[in-house]
Every structure is written in C-alpha cells, then in structure tokens.
C-alpha cells in the first residue's frame, strides 16, 4: 500500500494528502481517545502475533443465556453482544497497532448475534420514522452521481419500488431507530468518539450498488441479511488530484478509475460478517456474480467513527499546533511571510480537510 505524505502546514502544497490523519502516531492515542486503554477487557493481553482477520471479538457461548435474558427484557434486541464485541475489537492491541486507520480487513469470526439483527421486516416497520431527506438513493444527473431523497409522505412501498434499480440508504438511522441507537451507543462507549449509523438496502442483481468513492469516516460494515460484494482499494496518490478532498472522492462529478488503484480486499459479505474500512480508502459494492442467486435483499449496517469530520485526529492537532506556533513566531520576530495575501485562506482550507 503506498504511503502518503505527512500533513501539516505542507498541506497547503498538497491538499489531497490524507495518510497522516489516517495513521496516528503511538503517542497520539491518548489525544484521540484517552480512555481506550482503560476500556480493554480485564486480563486482555497484547496480541501482536494475531492477524487482523483473526481477531476474536464476539462474546463466547457462555454469554448466550445472558443475551437471551437481555433480549426478553429490552423488547427483542440483544444489546449486550454488540457492546462486548465492539469493545473487544476497538481495544484489541492488533487492531490499534496494525488496523485502525491503516488497513481494511474482514474478520474471519462471524458475529452470530448480528445475523438477522436488522431485516427488511424491520425496515418496513421503521423506515417511515425517518424524515424524507434521510432516506435516499444514488442517481445519475448530468455527469455526476448524487443522492436523491424520498418525497415527503413516502411509504415502505415507495422504498421497495426504488430498490428495483438502486440502493436505498437510511441515513442517520442510528439517531432515530431505537434498536439501532443501541448499536450506536455501544460503539460510542467503546471508542469514546462521535458515531453515526446508516442502513443500506440492496436487491440482488444490482451491478453497481455504490460507485467507487471515499468517505471521511472509518467504518465498520456489519452484514445482517442477504449478501453483497465489496472491493476496497488503497488510496490514490495525492498528486493525482491535489485539488480534491481525499475524504470525498468519487462523489458528484468526480469519477474514480479502479484500474489505477491497488485492490486490497475483494469479498462477498454474508450475514454476521464484519468488514473494517479506514477513511479515505476507496470502495465500491454490487450484488451480482455469486450474490445474484441470493433470494433476500442485502441489508447491512455501516457504523461510522467520525474523527476527521470533527477534527479529532493527530494530523489536525499537529496542523493546529504548527499553525498557531508559526503565527506566534511570525508576530514575535516581525516576519510577514505567513501573512502574505492569500496564504491564510489556503491554510484554513487545508486545516478544514483534516
């Protein structure tokens, strides 16, 4: 995987660079999340010899009776396994040192509690709880692809009809749907970072479920029903599109070319499987090939960890500190280079992309 250049004041020259924000230095963990080490399960040991794909985060069978009791007590949605698995994953030493913000990977261990945790039946019950602007699908308009929200007063039948030709997304469902809010809360408690959760609905046979693009968030993809193929690539070289936000490539009129990228992951997600994708890593999905014979629609949860959106990254801290230090030095020494016309707007723009 190509390494990307550091970001700081130098990002004025290379606004497309993303990797320093993606790869926190060891000393940055307390800055990003001071409580991570405290959240590691008691007795947990460093797992440097474990491969990322081999991380075992799901609760052992011994917890099953507790899960059943919890499901009965909270109206059918077992929150305990989610809390257990998410905490174990994000506090795992291998994940922190090798995976987080560095490399996409798919867990070998299935999260059995996630199988059918959210189905099309649940969508039918819940989707009308969301405002129309939160239920959308991608559409071609001119030379670009954009999200088109549902019309006011939409119904599940409208969603079902739209799914005949496009993936429908329930944006921000983790803020509104009670059962999904429990998953969001479990992730928030595990990471101590801002969280959002979307639900994606795709019928079998869709050649392009989502176009090749990048996002600002590190995400955990949890497949709950059906199957979907994912391809994840290494970030492109910054110089190829220095004027574009590396965290928002492939959107609008910006079209990415997969043939120019290094493929890192090519997998079909089945119910209970978990995929991690760092921010700024291009990815695309479909439901053709070996998934086309699937009878059930694909439903998956995308849990986003929002560090970059809120400036909660090591690169942002460094950029802010460097900018403020340089400003103080310039004022103290009477130099004016930092304050030439046009420089500060560029600095502000660069900082906004961290």
UniProtKB/TrEMBL annotation:
One of its GO terms (cellular component) is nucleolus. Its EC number is 1.14.11.-. Oxygenase that can act as both a histone lysine demethylase and a ribosomal histidine hydroxylase. Its main location: nucleus. This is Bifunctional lysine-specific demethylase and histidyl-hydroxylase. The lineage of its organism: Eukaryota, Haptista, Haptophyta, Prymnesiophyceae, Isochrysidales. Binds 1 Fe(2+) ion per subunit. Keywords: Dioxygenase, Iron, Metal-binding, Nucleus, Oxidoreductase, Signal, Transcription, Transcription regulation. Residues 166-322 form the JmjC domain. GO terms for molecular function: histone H3K36 demethylase activity; histone H3K4 demethylase activity; iron ion binding. It is found in: Nucleus. Its cofactor is Fe(2+). PROSITE patterns: JMJC (PS51184). InterPro entries: JmjC_dom (IPR003347), NO66-like (IPR039994). Belongs to the ROX family. Residues 1-20 form the signal peptide.
């Amino acid at each position: 995987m190509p390494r990307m250049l550091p970001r700081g004041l130098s990002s004025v020259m290379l606004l497309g660079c993303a990797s320093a924000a993606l790869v926190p230095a060891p000393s940055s963990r307390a800055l990003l999340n001071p409580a991570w080490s405290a959240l590691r399960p008691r007795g947990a040991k460093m797992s440097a010899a474990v491969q990322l794909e081999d991380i075992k985060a799901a609760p052992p069978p011994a917890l099953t009776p507790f899960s059943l009791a919890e499901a009965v007590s909270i109206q059918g949605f077992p929150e305990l396994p989610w809390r257990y698995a998410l905490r174990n994953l994000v506090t795992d030493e291998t994940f922190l040192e090798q995976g987080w913000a560095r490399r996409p990977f798919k867990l070998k261990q299935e999260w059995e509690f996630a199988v059918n945790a959210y189905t099309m039946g649940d969508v039918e019950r819940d989707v009308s709880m969301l405002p129309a602007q939160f239920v959308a699908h991608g559409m071609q308009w001119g030379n670009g692809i954009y999200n088109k929200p549902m019309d006011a007063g939409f119904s599940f039948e409208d969603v079902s009809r739209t799914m005949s030709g496009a993936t429908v997304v329930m944006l921000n469902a983790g803020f509104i749907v009670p059962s999904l809010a429990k998953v969001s809360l479990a992730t928030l408690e595990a990471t101590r970072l801002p969280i959002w959760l979307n639900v994606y609905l795709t019928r079998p046979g869709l050649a392009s479920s989502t176009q090749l693009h990048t996002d600002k968030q590190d995400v955990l993809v949890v497949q709950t029903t059906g199957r979907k193929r994912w391809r994840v690539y290494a970030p492109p070289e910054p110089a190829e599109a220095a004027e574009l936000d590396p965290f928002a490539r492939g959107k609008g009129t910006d079209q990415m070319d997969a043939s120019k990228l290094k493929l890192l992951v090519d997998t079909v997600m089945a119910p209970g499987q978990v995929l991690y994708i760092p921010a700024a890593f291009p990815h695309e999905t479909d439901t053709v090939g070996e998934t086309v014979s699937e009878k059930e629609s694909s439903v998956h949860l995308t849990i986003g960890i929002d560090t970059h959106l809120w400036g909660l990254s090591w690169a942002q801290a460094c950029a802010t500190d460097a900018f403020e230090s340089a400003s103080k030095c310039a004022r103290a020494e009477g130099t004016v280079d930092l304050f030439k016309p046009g420089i500060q707007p560029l600095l502000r723009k660069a900082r906004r992309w961290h």
